[in-house]
Write a structure and sequence with these properties.
This protein is an alpha/beta fold and about 325 residues long. Helices cover about 35% and strands about 15% of the residues. The chain contains twelve helices and nine strands. About 40% of the residues are buried. It binds iron/sulfur cluster (SF4).
Length: about 325
């Protein structure tokens, strides 16, 4: 993504009270301690000086950082306009925590919901009771005035549940939801055989879910699902609108996540150059074709030109 830096993604802590079977962080939680407040303050300042005005506080589970609310207050004091908390949503089951986070300056929350029922969500998160806590959290966030943008990781166990997830999110009154195709890294790579669905299989369920969200007036997005699986729904491909983002990770900084995605994260197949979306498409995460090959990726045809108006016959 070109253009000036807009968003800072700050990883605050790496531990988590979920144990998601698709977690891209994998064993990072065992290797890295939560960042000390002084380091976080420094990274917030650097990000702002570099031009970042939107902030995403993430992890691991950022709300488990012992000084989380101080981090939010620091970010607001520095001048960030939009402060999003990317979370598994469980801490928001406490209404007073929601209110405190809002008072500290957080404006947006991105909780993760991976099933419409406890059996599916808790199975995927590896945490009994997490579905109930996250759903309660979403309701509390809305009551506290947050804009709520949820994320659902699309996997084999929840593919058929996507329309029901969309219906539940509409009922909960979220502002936006996103379906993100599982990225085969960390725990997801270890579980790939039973976890990763084929993109041709998820396509109808994704579209059905999007339809439900759109009918309810929600903003909807998808991630890591290329255009060749999104026929008729191309405008919901998130990669085209993700702002330029810098990531402060554990011991490393990714200056431009868009460039990183293109150069190191994603890949295109042998037939892609003939696709109508070749210039706009990032392709899938590169681990996907390593698992399933390129057979499903059928290049899109250019849209048919509008029919020319018929000429009237002379004298007609
Ligand atoms: S460029 Fe390749 S991956 Fe992207 S939409 Fe076209 S065929 Fe699919």
């Amino acid at each position: 993504m070109n253009g000036p830096l807009k968003r800072i993604d700050l990883k605050v802590a790496f531990g988590c009270n979920n144990m998601c079977v698709f977690c891209v962080q994998g064993k990072k939680r065992e290797k890295h301690q939560p960042k000390p407040l002084a380091q976080l303050r420094g990274e917030l300042k650097r990000g702002y000086e570099d031009g970042g005005r939107e902030l995403v506080l993430t992890g691991g589970e950022p709300t488990l950082h012992g000084e989380f609310l101080r981090v939010v207050r620091e970010a607001k004091k520095i001048g960030y306009r939009n402060i999003q908390i990317q979370s598994n949503g469980r801490m928001f089951r406490y209404p007073e925590f929601c209110r405190a986070a809002a008072a500290a300056g957080a404006t947006e929350a991105s909780p993760a919901l991976h099933g419409s029922r406890a059996e599916i969500h808790d199975y995927l998160t590896g945490a009994a009771g997490s579905f109930k806590e996250t759903v309660t959290g979403i309701m509390n966030l809305k009551k506290a005035g947050f804009r709520v943008i949820t994320n659902t990781v699309v996997t084999k166990p929840n593919t058929q549940d996507l329309p029901a997830i969309a219906a539940l999110l509409a009922k909960l009154g979220v502002d936006q939801f996103q379906f993100a195709f599982v990225h085969i890294l960390g725990s997801a790579a270890a579980n790939a055989k039973w976890l990763v669905p084929k993109k041709t299989v998820i396509e109808p369920f994704v579209k059905h879910g999007l339809d439900i969200g759109l009918a309810a007036g929600l903003r909807v997005m998808t991630e890591a699902i290329p255009y060749c699986f999104m026929g008729g729904y191309e405008e919901y491909v998130a990669e085209t609108i993700i702002p330029r983002t810098k990531i402060f990770d554990a011991g490393t900084v990714i200056e431009d996540f868009g460039k990183y995605r293109l150069n190191e994260g994603k890949a295109k197949g042998p037939k892609c150059p003939s696709c109508a979306f070749f210039g706009r498409c990032e392709g899938p995460w590169r681990e996907y074709p390593e698992l399933f090959g390129w057979g499903e990726f059928v290049p899109c045809r250019p849209a048919a030109p509008a029919a020319a108006p018929k000429r009237r016959k002379r004298g007609g």
